[in-house]
Every structure is written in structure tokens, then in C-alpha cells.
Amino acid sequence: MILRGLAKNLKEQNWMAIGIEFVLLIAGVFLGIQVANWNDERRDLIREKAYLEDVAAELDKSIQSIEHSIKRSQERIALNELLIQAAADPVVVRAEPGRFIYAITRGGWTFSPTISGNAFEAMKASGNLGIFRDRKLLRDLMALYSGVQGSTQWSQWNALNQSEYSRRAAGILTAQEMMLAPPDSDIIPIVDVDTALAVRQRMLERPEFIEWVPTILFNRVDNLDVDRQLLERVKALRARVLDQIDGRQAP
């Protein structure tokens, strides 16, 4: 419509009308570009929010896994300490015979928290990282997930320690005694004192096992410190993600 009017005015040499038509044409083009940009920005904000909600949900699961790992580490540190004390003093075994047997079966177990980054990887794979407004948050999330991928070697080291513990503990418990604390149960078994003292005697006959327990304990304490630091880091990232979702973070 504007172009048709412009052509008519050019033919008639109506310069004022031509000027008005030209201004309207430029304004229409500019407005169209602005509306397109606004729609693109709005679409990006919606996509960013959806991705961040998925990231926040996965960070929630990661926090739960880390907290579970911390709880398990604290429990097993206590079990390792019990074994060290039991090797030095039979009174410890007499006081808690069931827990002593339980400590032998669980003393070498390890648990590595699961840090899931599927939502972030999906966003990266789709080429949508550019819609992230908070570039520092983006970098910190990338650092978290790349660091987790690099921790595989540490998990393998823990698995080797657990395997070595099991090797050195072989024969301390009979098959029947091992079933007193089956792997699928966290219940401290009821064990008579004589049975527990007999197990302690077999443990004392394996100095290589007694020597290995402090190594497991040291590594577990180290793991606990790492998990606590990781927990604070993930919680802080989750809070920042939620701020971004709620719009409290500056673009």
C-alpha cells in the first residue's frame, strides 16, 4: 500500500507526500525488525527457562546423592574406627558384637555421588548455550560437569581400595557369619559375644587386614571433605539457577 502510494506521488512529483510515505516505509521496516527481535528474545527466554528448570531439577538430585554419600561416609568412618578399636581391645567387641560383625562386612564399602548433567549436555548438544544470559553461571556449570567427568579416576581408586579390603578380609567371616549382615540390609545383626570374639581372633591373625583399615579410613575422611565441598558448590549453583529462572539475576 505504501509502495503503491509512493509510486503515485513520484509520478505526480508530490515531494511532501513522497517524504511522508518514505518515512512511513522506513518506520514500518524498523518496527517489523524490532517486533521480530522481540519475538526472538521472548522465545529464547522461554527456552532458557525450560533448560534451567531441567538443570535445577538435576542439581536437586545431585544434592540428594551427595548428601547420601556424606551420610554413608560418616557411618563407615565410625565402622572403620570401631574395627581399629576392636583390634586393640576386646571390650569393644563384647560391648557391640553385632556392630562389630557389621563393621567387617561394610568397612570397605564405598559410595560415589552421582552428578547428573544430562539437561546441560542436551542444551550444549543442541547449540543453545548462546541463549544463556548469565555467562558466568554458564561457565561455572561447565566447570562443574567437566570436573565431575574428570573424577572418574578417583572413583576407580575407591573401587580398588574396596576390592583390596575384600581380598584382605576374606576368611575372617564364615559364610554363615556373613549372612548375619546381608548386603541388602542396613540392620545391625544380633550376634552372641562368643561368635564375635571368635571373629575378632581370626581378624587378629590377619595383620594385613588390620593394616589396611587405617588406609580405608584415611581415604574415607578425604572423600568426606571432598563431598562436603562439592555439596556447597552444587547448592550455590542451584541457588543461582533458581535466581535466573525467577528473573532476579541481571541479564
Structure report:
The chain is mostly helical and 251 residues long. 79% of the residues lie in helices and 0% in strands. It is built from ten helices and no strands. Helix 1 runs antiparallel to helix 2. The protein starts with a helix and ends in a 5-residue tail after the last helix. The model has no long low-confidence stretch (mean pLDDT 83).
- The fraction of residues in strands falls at under 5%
Kindly name the structural category.
mainly alpha
DSSP summary, beta strand count? 0
Main beta sheet: none
Helical content (DSSP H or I, runs of 4+): over 70%
Q: Report low-confidence residues grouped into runs of 5 or more.
A: none
The average pLDDT is 83
Helix-strand pattern: HHHHHHHHHH
Q: Tell the overall outline.
A: rod-shaped
**N/C terminus separation:** 40 Å
Over all CA atoms, what is the radius of gyration?
32 Å
Count, helices:
10
Short key terms for the protein model shown above:
mainly alpha; 10 helices; 251 residues; single chain
Helix/strand layout:
Layout: H1 2-12, H2 15-88, H3 90-95, H4 97-106, H5 118-125, H6 135-149, H7 152-169, H8 175-178, H9 193-204, H10 207-246
Helix pairs in contact: 1-2, 2-4, 2-5, 2-10, 4-9, 6-10, 7-10
What's the gist of this structure?
79% of the residues lie in helices and 0% in strands. The protein is an all-alpha fold and 251 residues long. The relative contact order is 0.14.
